[in-house]
UniProtKB/TrEMBL annotation:
It catalyses: K(+)(in) = K(+)(out). The chain crosses the membrane at residues 73-94, 151-175. The keyword Transport applies. Signal peptide: none annotated. GO terms for molecular function: ATP-activated inward rectifier potassium channel activity. This is ATP-sensitive inward rectifier potassium channel 8. Its main location: membrane. InterPro entries: Ig_E-set, IRK_C, K_chnl_inward-rec_Kir, K_chnl_inward-rec_Kir6.1, K_chnl_inward-rec_Kir_cyto, Kir_TM. It comes from Aptenodytes patagonicus (King penguin). It is found in: Membrane. Keywords: Ion channel, Ion transport, Membrane, Phosphoprotein, Potassium, Potassium transport, Transmembrane, Transmembrane helix, Transport, Voltage-gated channel. The keyword Lipid metabolism does not apply. Gene3D superfamilies: 1.10.287.70, G protein-activated inward rectifier potassium channel 1.
Length: 421
């Protein structure tokens, strides 16, 4: 409802309505694209309609390692239990075939020498206990095998071999699950956001990586890939087109010494997919930069890999990471509370191609930033000076004792002059 003319002028109301309409977005927001790599390094990919499921059973060890812990523990328990039950049935059949479970054999034992295949095995329960003793090598001493049955000796050898295989596979699976490489990657962290700023006269894409553990990652290397949807000149649509981009590293081996957090830099030059992208175009780009850190764990010798990704909304143009490594009492200290903090710096808003074609843009940007910095310093100093003057005046008003009295001086000519000190 419009306001009354007597209270608010009509031209003011119309101007306010026009301003509210301008604030409303007229274009709908672009739907957000699904990430290929999540921030925690997980691949956002679902495999569907796999017909050849038997391929997973051909690599049974890797399948067991990739299973969840609850499934692995169920398989671990059932493998031992089923093997015990299987060989318990075999021991029961051996004893039953030899006649060890016949009650009439107890009377004939007194008259003639009769030897059972396994002593004290007269039921399936006793056969199951004997199977456990054989496979786990407990040996309580109540039940033991004799030389009477060659078949029992064969079953004993077979159960020992099967038990060793089960122990090796299942214990190796448990060890590999506890020492998986991605567990070590949990302490390899990346900055939440990446930045684009000027370094050494070039526009650079930068992010920070760090290791929270004291045990180092040996031969660590960083790779960057740009994933975007592209269309070939022939009209073929590639939904996930991966392009490697170089990392600026003064070491020829491309390895980094990750003893403290480092800022990884990619120079945006002619080889870079970001060469034609400006600050205004970055928001409209449908791209994702994947960062992969690989290395060997010092304590276990296992190769580990940590991943993350940056989309256009997570790249800050004209920012720089704050320093977090300081020297305190002869020791380099790292403040991880400032790991992802950035500050604004002077950076041209144009693309790297325009910057290479017109180098004067960078000089003008730096000059403008220097002038704005000097102006801000002047304003700050003037504000401090004014605040100090106001504070001193207020103190004089509140404290009358601070007011300096007037002193009269008498000159030799006899004239009196008043001065204020």
């Amino acid at each position: 409802m419009l306001a009354r003319k007597s209270i608010i002028p009509e031209e003011y109301v119309l101007a306010r309505i026009a301003a509210e309409n301008l604030r409303k977005p007229r274009i709908r927001d672009r739907p957000r694209k699904a990430r290929f790599i999540a921030k925690n390094g997980a691949c956002n990919l679902a495999h569907k309609n796999i017909r050849e499921q038997g391929r997973f059973l051909q690599d049974i060890f890797t399948t067991l390692v990739d299973l969840k812990w609850r499934h692995t523990l169920v398989i671990f328990t059932m493998s031992f239990l089923c093997s015990w039950l299987l060989f318990a049935m075999m021991w029961w059949l051996v004893a039953f075939a030899h006649g060890d479970m016949d009650p009439s054999t107890e009377s004939t034992t007194n008259s003639t020498k009769w030897t059972p295949c396994v002593t004290c095995v007269r039921s399936f329960t006793s056969a199951f206990l004997f199977s456990i003793e054989v496979q786990v090598t407990i040996g309580f001493g109540g039940r033991m095998m004799t030389e009477e049955c060659p078949l029992a000796i064969t079953v004993l050898i077979l159960q020992n071999i099967v038990g060793l295989i089960i122990n090796a596979v299942m214990l190796g699976c448990i060890f590999m699950k506890t020492a998986q490489a991605h567990r070590r990657a949990e302490t390899l962290i990346f900055s939440r956001q990446a930045v684009i700023a000027v370094r050494n006269g070039k526009l650079c894409f930068m992010f920070r990586v760090g290791d929270l553990r004291k045990s180092m990652i040996i031969s660590a290397s960083v790779r960057i890939q740009v994933v975007r949807k592209t269309t070939t000149p022939e009209g073929e649509v590639i939904p996930i087109h991966q392009v490697d981009i170089p990392v600026d590293n003064p070491i020829e081996s491309n390895n980094i010494f990750l003893v403290a957090p480092l800022i990884i830099c990619h120079v945006i030059d002619k080889r870079s997919p970001l060469y034609d992208i400006s600050a205004a175009d970055l928001v409209l780009q449908d791209l994702e930069l994947i960062v992969i850190l690989e290395g060997v764990v010092e304590t276990t010798g296992i190769t580990t890999q940590a991943r993350t990704s940056y989309i256009a909304e997570e790249i800050l143009w004209g920012h720089r990471f704050v320093p977090i490594v300081t020297e305190e009492e002869g020791v380099y200290a790292v403040d991880y509370s400032k790991f992802g903090n950035t500050i604004k710096v002077a950076a041209p808003r144009c693309s790297a191609r325009e910057l290479d074609e017109k180098p004067s843009i960078l000089i003008q940007t730096l000059q403008k930033s220097e002038l704005s910095h000097q102006n801000s310093l002047r304003k700050r100093n003037s504000m401090r000076r004014n605040n100090s003057i106001r504070r001193s005046n207020s103190m004089r008003r509140t404290n009358p004792s601070l007011i300096v009295p007037k002193v009269q001086f008498i000159t030799p000519e006899g004239n009196q002059s008043a001065s204020e000190t």
